[in-house]
Hints:
By secondary structure, the chain is α/β, with parallel strands linked by helices. Helices cover 43% and strands 24% of the residues. It has 8 helices and 12 strands. The strands form 3 sheets. Strands 2-1-3-4-5 form a 5-stranded parallel beta sheet, with helices on both faces. A 4-stranded antiparallel beta sheet has the order 6-7-8-9, covered by helices on one side. It has a 3-stranded antiparallel beta sheet with strand order 10-12-11. The longest helix is centred in the middle third of the chain and has 17 residues, at 105-121. It is elongated and about 55 Å long. The model has no long low-confidence stretch (mean pLDDT 87). Calcium ion is lined by residues 8-9, 51, 53-54.
Amino acid sequence: MRVLVVEDEVRxxxxxxxxxxxxxxxxxxxxxxxxxxxxxxxxxxxxxVLDVGLPRIDGFDVLRSLRARHIxxxxxxxxxxxxxxxxxxxLQLGADDYLVKPFAMQELVARVRxxxxxxxEEPALNLRVGDLTLDLANHEVYRGTQxxxxxxxELMLLKVLxxxxxxVFTRTELCERVWQHAHEYDTKLxxxxxxxxxxKIDLPPLIHTVRHVGxxxxxxT
Length: 221
Ligand code: CA
């Protein structure tokens, strides 16, 4: 599984990552909530190991934002022993499981494995705008019943737009999310890729240009 580890204690984060690697998972380590949101939005993770006690944006706020953005990665929260309410709060906000600190690494690995099984059993969500469907599990796109062939970047761009229909994204924002960098001159890339998406999927149009701002995708009115 692809796992995002969000933990501000650098040593603990490193231990978690190496335990996960040993168990055959791919992990990315992030030390604060803001960066975690960014990372989770642009790369898809099967699971997020999320510490509650983080600087600036705490784990609960991260979780809240993830779910608000329809990011459906499984979430395993790490909570402090003396904060019983934290477990309840986490689960209410949409966490899938929690682990109380301090914990044994083998316990964490076992929980991750269990969540992986649960993940495999549950059908992944489809993103849908009008009659456009993006199947997140199989990375397939359909306009009505017509399958559409997209390149990985085109797919990623479409996914970013479709996760938040109606939201206007600036070119810079899209560039950051899809290409992980944003220089002024790179925003031309976004225009090119939007053009390709339009050619491939956009009749009748769902992707709209917002003058002087950027792009949005929305249901036909
Ligand atoms: Ca912490």
